[in-house]
Amino acid sequence: MKVVIMGCGRVGARLAALLDSEGHQVTVLDNDAYSFRRLPSKFGGATLLGNALDEEVLKKAGIKEADAFVAVTQGDNRNVMASQIAKHIFDVPKVVCRIYDPLRRDLYDTLGIETISPTTIFAQMLKDKLES
Prior knowledge:
Number of domains: 1
Order of helices and strands: EHEEHEHEHEH
Shape: globular
Strand order of the largest sheet: 3-2-1-4-5-6
Number of strands: 6
CATH topology: Rossmann fold
Strand content: 15-25%
Mean pLDDT: 93
Helix content: 40-55%
Distance between the termini: 39 Å
Low-confidence stretches: none
């Protein structure tokens, strides 16, 4: 599977390492070159410095051939915009977007953007721990 990951923070770097170790073709895109330090030394994928809201940058990252796109920057707005571009302009089959705000997550789900809210997931995990 060919995957483009926008954001090389802790989650993006970890996901890239996991997918790469399984033999997937991974490109990690970030607008801060220092972020790539989070990737393991044995990472065999590609890195690209640039803004994922720029269609030309996405093309350089291989978005036209991508099977999946994952947006995991710190900004909900950037993640949603990039996910919409990947889904609606480049027709990437699988697009997943991290959204911190649970209310916005529900809205974007109704618009057809597959989202994950770590805020919601973590709150439920904490609740479960309190009840156990």
